[in-house]
Specification:
The chain is α+β, with helices and mostly antiparallel strands. Helices cover 50% and strands 12% of the residues.
């Protein structure tokens, strides 16, 4: 049979995702040809059949009252909606099929087959017939069933098949086969439905060894596309890993009788996701499974949840339960299929070599005291006594991670029981502390083992303060993980840096705890210091080590913030960092923690450029702590030979000189300077966009250079990732401003440097109205981004950070022309920008400007406050 449309998903949608939607007339002709028809958003019927009595029934108002009834929600409402729909469809069938006799049945499949209907769910229906009624009769019956559904505006996934055709479609398409696992009789011949249900289950169990690997691959591909639900700020409740599709896949695995999912908490997790999806449907009035940011507060209110953060945490907890159950289940499926693939004779030979001689048992290899490897998993030895060995959970976890093995479900549950019976003493014994450090030092292999401990509550049992950060969302586009997973990822990154430090154990524990304060109100670094001090003492570190760990947690942002937002040539900057850190040993640990934290945050938080800034700062502070002079060699603040050449050329020509460096996969290319005697730059837009771009400008000092340069970059749709501005005097005849920009093209290719220079010249002489050009673009952007909420900008004076200038710090939403507006505001305040340090983290700009008065001195306190207010007003 030719299938025009088939099932879209594992949970029972009855259409092929790649098929076009078919309208009612198409469905009629297809039914007459004994083929399948389907629609997700049916077109309005062109030639509907005559109206019947079912148009006068009360289904529509009853359905509306049910959905508006706040006294019936969740599972009860879904079941009630399914029953109401069952009765309506059964009535339609009875009126329409009165003359057809037996041999025809109306069947629910997929989610509707499970008796679950969300407010905007499709109706998954199969019109089953034995082929004796004739094609025209079946087609007429299909019309009398489908048209009333379409008339009410309900989404319908439908098909018309004989049992043999249904089985063939299932053999050809895994998605169809999965839909038939939830067959439920609605009306007509119950024997026909019962026979299909029995054969569908029998076929599935027979074909499961071949079909389950296919189902697993589909799940993996979907996860790659949609991501992991438990970490997404705008998760797809159905498609993402750990979502409703995975829960349905676990039901299919259980129906195969090859393996079963861990059932503890699984149904509750699935129910929670269904409840959230119901609330999402009702609040938006749309068929959607994506929990968007702007809808989370409304959904939380509809569910009676405190706020959107609590809602996300509940969603993450549910997704984590389903993801863990999936991991365990698919591992068991793999083990069973591998054992079945071994020939019987070979199995007999292997059985004779089995340790202990037991039938079907694999060989046990020791991993640690009380822990062995069996069938690719870390399990407890037969002699292990979790109720008498409180260190065993950490020892087993460390051994599993070091061996790159998962902890078996049975082992984790025995460890949980043992931990409850005999918890670790406080402070922990030395072995427990060492095993925790060993677990954290295993690198990426730590993650699945830690997740297994978390799934069974062992982590919270060992470290009670962990509960406050577990599944806690981070509403920051820079962060890719929840707080707890970020902490583990930081430890994973730190494990690769342990050879750089003298105390790897302190680095790993500080990595695990550095954001532990995010579960408490206030500055997470301040509260985290107190919590980390208590936790480190609980783990068994002595007073000196506890102080080091607490210092690392309190100041884990010190190096990156100082390196990217402060003038490293200012002695006050180096002095402040040295006083805070106190020793070279702590500085060494803080350097490694800074890198691990940034790498675990996301790609926007770390780069070679940021790494070089932090390394330069560490070198300067190390020299200060050792009582040495500043490091020898060219510092970051001294111009390079190329910058000196540009500055000389700008002074000689009296105009700006630009050069563009592009770097792709470690190779560099440079445009010749634009505006120099070397000739115009080559066309950068003739090459593909590079990975990294550095734009150098040298401009004779004059008013308005910063806003003019920033405005020209914005006009050419160049996004500023970082910037640095300083003044040099190349020949002793007057200052030249050096501006170093790290930029990326918003889209398309990079502009030519000669075009940038020409527009910069016009912007400086006033012939190019940069503010007007940017205002037009901002208005267009505002129309496109309507509804997007961003926190208001904040501009402050960073007191005591420099002896040579006043530091104005700006935090704002990154936007086109932001730096231009800041520069204009500073110009209007009649201050001189001595240097600027611009950085962008995701959608957030964090910029620091070292400014002085017209005499080159720091601003008076009241003047500095007024300048900050001026800039903030310009951005508001």
């Amino acid at each position: 049979m030719t299938e025009s449309v088939r099932k879209t998903a594992e949970d029972g949608d009855q259409c092929d995702a790649g098929a076009g939607a078919a309208g009612p007339n198409t469905a009629t002709s297809q039914a007459a040809d004994a083929t399948t028809a389907c629609t997700e958003a049916p077109d309005s019927p062109q030639d509907p059949p005559p109206a019947s009595a079912d148009s006068e029934d009360s289904y529509a108002p009853d359905r509306l009252r049910l959905l508006q009834d706040t006294g019936q929600e969740g599972t009860a409402r879904r079941a009630a909606l399914a029953r109401l729909t069952d009765d309506w469809l059964a009535g339609l069938f009875e009126r329409a099929a009165g003359r057809t006799g037996s041999g025809i049945a109306l069947v629910a499949v997929g989610g509707y087959g499970r008796g679950e209907l969300s407010p905007r769910s499709d109706l998954d229906l199969l019109l089953l017939h034995d082929g004796k009624a004739g094609a025209r009769t079946v087609a007429e019956l299909a019309d009398r069933l489908w048209y009333p559904v379409w008339d009410l505006g309900l989404a319908l996934d439908h098909s018309v098949r004989t049992p043999a055709e249904a089985r063939k479609a299932a053999r050809d398409d895994l998605k169809v086969q999965l839909g038939l696992l939830d067959v439920r009789h609605l009306a007509g011949d119950p024997e026909l439905t019962g026979a299909l249900r029995g054969t569908a289950l029998a076929d599935w169990r027979e074909q499961a060894p071949k079909r389950l690997p296919e189902l697993r691959e589909i799940s993996r591909e979907r996860a790659d596309r949609q991501g992991e639900l438990q970490y997404l700020l705008e998760p797809d409740l159905k498609e993402a890993r750990g979502g409703l599709r995975d829960a349905t896949a676990l039901r299919a695995v259980a129906a195969s009788w090859l393996a079963d999912a861990p059932r503890e908490g699984l149904e509750a997790a699935r129910t929670r996701l269904l409840d959230v999806r119901d609330a999402l449907h009702l609040t938006t009035g749309r068929t959607t499974d994506r929990l968007s940011l702007q809808e989370q507060d409304q959904v939380a209110e509809a569910l009676g949840v405190l706020d959107a953060d609590v809602l996300l945490r509940q969603v993450y907890e549910s997704a984590r339960t389903i993801s863990y159950a999936s991991d365990v289940t698919w591992r068991e499926v793999g083990r069973v299929l591998r054992s079945r693939s071994v020939r019987p004779v070979l199995r007999g030979l292997l059985r004779g070599r089995t340790a202990g001689g037991g039938p079907g048992r694999g060989e046990r290899s020791p991993l640690a005291e009380g822990v062995v490897e069996l069938d690719g998993e870390a399990v407890l030895a037969r002699t292990a006594r979790p109720d008498r060995d409180p260190v065993l959970p950490l020892r087993a976890a460390a051994a599993a991670a070091q061996a790159g093995l998962p902890l078996s479900l049975h082992a984790v549950r025995r460890l949980r029981t043992g931990a409850a019976t005999r918890p670790l003493p406080v402070p922990w014994p030395a072995e427990a502390r060492e095993q925790l450090v060993t677990l954290l030092g295993a690198g990426a292999q730590t993650v699945p083992v830690w997740e297994a401990l978390e799934a069974e509550g062992i982590v919270t049992w060992l470290l009670p303060d962990w509960e406050r950060v577990r599944c806690r969302p981070q509403r920051n586009a820079v962060h890719r993980w929840t707080v707890d997973r970020h902490l583990i990822e930081t430890a994973v990154r730190a494990a690769a840096l342990t050879r750089r430090v003298h105390r790897p154990d302190l680095l790993l524990i500080a990595a695990l705890l550095h954001d532990i304060g995010k579960g408490w109100p206030g500055d997470h670094s301040v509260s985290g210091e107190t919590i980390a001090r208590d936790m480190a003492a609980r783990i068994g570190f002595d007073a000196r080590d506890v102080t080091v760990i607490a210092t690392l947690v309190r100041h884990h942002l010190l190096l990156i913030e100082t390196a990217t937002r402060r003038d490293l040539s200012d002695p006050a900057t180096i002095e402040a960092v040295a006083d805070t850190v106190g020793s070279t040993g702590t500085l060494e640990l803080l350097h490694a923690l800074t890198e691990a934290d940034a790498l675990a945050t996301g790609p926007a938080a770390w780069s070679a450029w940021r790494g070089s800034l932090v390394a330069d700062l560490v070198k300067r502070v190390t020299a200060r702590l050792a009582g040495e002079s500043a490091p020898q060699g060219r510092s970051k603040d001294e111009p390079t030979a190329e910058q000196e050449r540009l500055a000389v050329e700008a002074w000689r020509t009296g105009g700006p000189v630009l050069t563009l460096h592009t770097r792709a996969e470690g190779h560099g290319e440079t445009d010749p300077p634009a505006g120099s005697t070397a000739g115009p730059g080559a066309a950068a837009d003739s090459e593909p966009e590079p990975v990294g771009v550095e734009l150098l400008m040298a401009v004779p000092d004059q008013p308005g250079v910063l806003p003019a340069a920033a405005g020209v970059l914005a006009m050419h749709r160049l996004t500023v990732r970082a910037a640095d501005l300083r003044s040099v005097d190349p020949v002793g005849e007057g200052p030249v401003l050096l501006l170093s920009w790290r930029v990326a093209a918003e889209y398309g290719s990079l502009p030519q440097t000669v075009r940038l220079r020409a527009d910069l010249v016009r912007a400086l002489d006033g012939s190019l109205d940069v503010p007007a050009r940017l205002a037009e673009r901002e208005q267009a952007y505002a129309r496109r981004s309507r509804g997007m909420q961003a926190p208001p900008p904040r501009v402050t004076v960073a007191s005591g950070t420099s002896q040579l200038a006043t530091v104005i710090e700006v935090r704002a939403q990154d936007a086109q022309g932001l730096l231009h507006r800041i520069g204009r505001a500073l110009e209007s305040a009649r201050v001189t920008v001595r240097s600027a340090h611009v950085s962008t983290l995701g959608a957030n700009a964090v910029d620091a400007f070292y400014v002085t008065d017209e005499k080159g001195a720091p601003l008076a306190d009241e003047v500095a406050v007024e300048v900050a207010r001026t800039v903030e007003n310009a951005l508001t």
